[in-house]
Amino acid sequence: MSFIRAFSTIGGLTLASRVAGFVRDMLTASLLGAGPVADAVVVAQRLPNLFRSLFAEGAFNTAFVPLYTAERARQGEESARSFITEVWGAMILVLTIFSVLMVLFMPWVIRVIAPGFADEADRFALSVSLGRIAFPYLVLISLVALLSGVLNAHGRFAAPAIAPILFNICMILAVLGAILLGGAPELWLTCGLTASGAVQLAWLLWVVWRLKLSFRWSWPRWTPRLRHLAKQIAPSALGAGAIQINVLVSTILASLLPAGIVSALYYADRLAQLPMGVIGIAAGTAMLPLLSGHLARGDEHAASHLANRGMEASLFLALPAAGGLIAAAEPIVRVLFERGAFTAADTAATSAALAAYALGMPAAVLVRLLAANAFARQDTRLPVRCALFAVVANMVLAALLLPVLQHVGIALASSLAAWLNAGLLAHRVWGRGWLRPDARLRKNGVVLTAATFVMSGLVYGAACGARPFLLPSSGLLVQAAILTALLAAGGATYLLITWRAGAFSLADLRRWRKR
User: Fold this and answer.
1) Is 501 exposed, middle or buried (0-12, 13-18, 19+ CB in 10 A)?
2) 64 near 228, Cβ under 8 Å?
């Protein structure tokens, strides 16, 4: 499968998932607003997802996929399946023990990640209760990550990308259950999170069985292959941990600010994560197995070409997406969220954070692609060292900016740290000769950046001029129509500039569509 086809498959399904996620967030914001109950829900759901990045997804897949691919190529399918069996048993045992301990010590965990909650007894108690309900999600979603890695290694990208859609469907049903049947909405949402893990796992187990990739289940054993995987995961987990430290620092600092700031940052991050998920996650997920395959065959030229074109395609989408979010942050937040319990003050707080988060989105996309070049060569240490340096920078910047910019300083520090991480990683990857930007990438990088600035200025100016029609008094349909027209005009301007500058051709579009 080509990179464009894999990227389009993952990106398209991720877009569907993020759209469903927006529906979920819109319903949640209308139901809870940005207040103490919403803060408790955000912290409780953030806990298993924080450790999910350590034990699964980024840390696990970056180590597992290259090893599994190499095992299949050298030892055959049967040996590769026995490898899955070993990993499956070990994950269940380790994560179950860890989850039980976390549930038992949840009050102390909440005091660490949200110290500001301890001053409000009700918010603290609610966070502890919801955290205990949500944490079993970690075991389920980690097994989902394992099956996703297996399917990606076999070139099956669609089924793993459908799993997050099932997650959002479960969460939407939970919100609707709270609205239609009554009861505590925070309890519905947290139970929906855990239930969604079971649904996603059942889906991927069925897909694996249908593709005849099923494997035996056995009691976990500490084998040489598991030891090798653990050695590879350790640096990746450390790197993922470094990234999650940024999230943890943001949560700790936000918990010290007035009630509602934790959830405002959450809503802003969710909006910024839409293009990040569609572009960054899709590109990184597609890139890793394809690069691993080229390198396993010793084809450095194909690997270099794939890396250059992957960065070019990702920047083509990431730069205007970030520019649009920055230029139209306030009307986007207002149209999506400002209704019910979500007030104009919540819109102001969320949109300011959104613009700050969006500034770092292209950097986050670059980090995923650059790291894939290292992971495909089974070097899991280089991305970790760069990420750790960026974490320290994020902590220092957040502490310095918080007194001046409040919660916006937290978001801005995250973006600046992402750019530092991307710069350090690019310097080392290029220095080792793993990725040499070719003439086409260098030229188009300049064109795409210039086009983004022009597009952003146009969208911002038009949004200021159309502000009276973007207020709630105009009605939701008018607001949505004006906002859509602004963003469409900006996108058309961007495409026209990049096309006239030769960044892409109509033949390229036809070829991408066919793939």
Assistant:
1) middle
2) no
The span from the CA of 178 to the CA of 173, in Å, is: 9
Q: How far is CA 66 from CA 373, 376, 400, in A?
A: 11, 6, 40
Question: What one-letter code names the amino acid at 463?
Answer: A
Which of 231, 225, 228, 374 has the alpha carbon at shortest distance from 292? 374
Instruction: Name the residue with higher pLDDT: 148 or 459.
Output: 459
SS3 annotation, 308-343: HHHHHHHHHHHHHHHHHHHHCHHHHHHHHHCCCCCC
Give the residue from 361, 224, 288, 251 showing the smallest Cα distance to 58.
288
pLDDT digits (tens, 9 = 90+) for 94-128: 888 989 999 999 999 888 888 878 777 888 888 89
pTM, two decimals, is 0.68
Nearest-Å Rg of the Cα atoms of the chain is: 22
- CA 384/CA 296 separation, integer angstroms: 23
pLDDT bracket for residue 327 (50, 70, 90): very high
Question: What is the dihedral angle through the alpha carbons of 334, 336, 338, 339, rounded to the nearest 10 degrees?
Answer: 150
Determine the 3-state secondary structure of 250 from DSSP: helix
